[in-house]
């Protein structure tokens, strides 16, 4: 049901994008204004994805998706009404496109994170590719249909079709009743949730590599869709149907890439596929810019669509497989922020270059920039975790404290003492620092490890959580991959485990835990004590 609903919604969105881009070529025909249509749709992902991802992890995802669909429906109806009466200005077009993009930015993290509630984790790649196939099926025919609709009936009808297309997704969401695991802890506040997501990504080298490579791919590749209306109008001397055919070729290439993705992923690593995508992006962009024939331009757009999906689908699979469930909405939001910021920035840059120097020159420079990814790939390799590595680790119950502690009390300080034979010390230091990175990634602060100078085989690991609630949240976040590191540490220490102690910092004036509940007598000023 969701697959069909999103297919129809994608079809409507693509028809709307054709109408919006072509309408801008008629009311403000400069290349930089036309490229801004794509920027307006992509920019909300830069501003709002992190907020949307935090809410997707801490609140009801179904409600978030419903609310965002209503926002998009309202903006689409407004745009269709203005277009029907001929009242659309460049500013209104960009503003309403931006509002639709805001709804999409709110919807996307919750939608992608909810895939894990629809299929088992080992089927997430297949589910993501099924969605990619559906979207690119729409991309392969939607733009061509949009071009015909715009040419035959005008942009208003394109906008009306987009508004109607949201109804299927709304119906599917009203019908869906997902079963969610109950979390005994209250949701994190928004600011803390965003900070936790940013910290998790910053302290996860594999995710940082994915985001860096994604940005390096998206910025130059954004030239192909952003300048497509100008290519159709100026380089091919065509109209809306020509633009629709180019978009259709782009979509067919994307669909073929999505259908072959499983075979390619079985034979090649994600890193090799992404390197190939960077090289092919150079070929596609250069061909679009230098082509003098419609057939060659069409083939170049087919290649560009294939490269677009090959790269973004691999990024889209790598992020959720490399993220635990508790933070998946936020890591996906961070990925979408980087992706759409790259698209928005690239669209703006290549639009300005095309306006100042020409469309062919802009596409040729973008092609050259795409080769940068090949140059840096050796130093920023992309790896995808094995299925199950980031599933939650089933751990024993947290030992309750001897006395009741308020959720906001803190900081909570933890020390763990290890006895490490000298022969294991070098390996222990490497592993305990990796464990420290994991603890800091999950929320620990002020982490450190020290060695006893009088008993060199004694090591102390120390870290703290801001409050008791933060301590409980951190204890719920370890994954199976994290447990592998802990098990390696256990093999190096005497007894297989350290000796843990937990402390609650007591500020001046605080009464001791378990002590007599009475106020101390004031000091005598004449006692001689300061």
Structural description of this entry:
The protein has 530 residues and is mainly alpha-helical. Helix content is 68%, strand content 5%. The protein is built from 18 helices and four strands. Strands 2-3-1-4 form a four-stranded antiparallel sheet. Strand 2 and strand 3 form a beta hairpin. The termini are far apart.
Key attributes of the depicted protein:
5% strand, 2 domains, disordered C terminus, mainly alpha, Growth Hormone, Chain: A, Alpha-Beta Plaits, single chain, 4-stranded antiparallel β-sheet, 530 residues
> What is CATH's topology name of the largest domain?
Growth Hormone, Chain: A
Alpha plus pi helix count:
18
Helix content: 55-70%
Strand order of the largest sheet: 2-3-1-4
What kind of oligomer do you see? single chain
- Estimate the strand proportion: 5-15%
**What's the CATH class of the largest domain, please?**
Mainly Alpha
Distance between the termini: 76 Å
Described by the principal axes of the CA atoms, the overall outline is elongated
How many independent structural domains?
A: 2
* CATH fourth-tier homologous superfamily of the largest domain: MFS general substrate transporter like domains
Rounded radius of gyration (Å):
27 Å
Which regions have little confidence, pLDDT < 50, spanning 5+ residues? 525-530
Mean pLDDT: 85
Largest beta-sheet characterization: 4 strands, antiparallel
Structural class: mainly alpha
What's this entry about, in short?
By secondary structure, the chain is mainly α.
Layout of strands and helices, then pairs:
Blueprint: H1 2-27, H2 31-58, H3 61-84, H4 90-118, H5 124-153, H6 155-175, H7 190-202, H8 205-221, H9 223-226, H10 228-235, H11 240-267, H12 270-290, H13 294-321, H14 328-357, H15 359-376, E1 412-419, H16 425-441, E2 445-451, E3 458-465, H17 468-475, H18 480-490, E4 499-504
Antiparallel strand pairs: 1-3, 1-4, 2-3
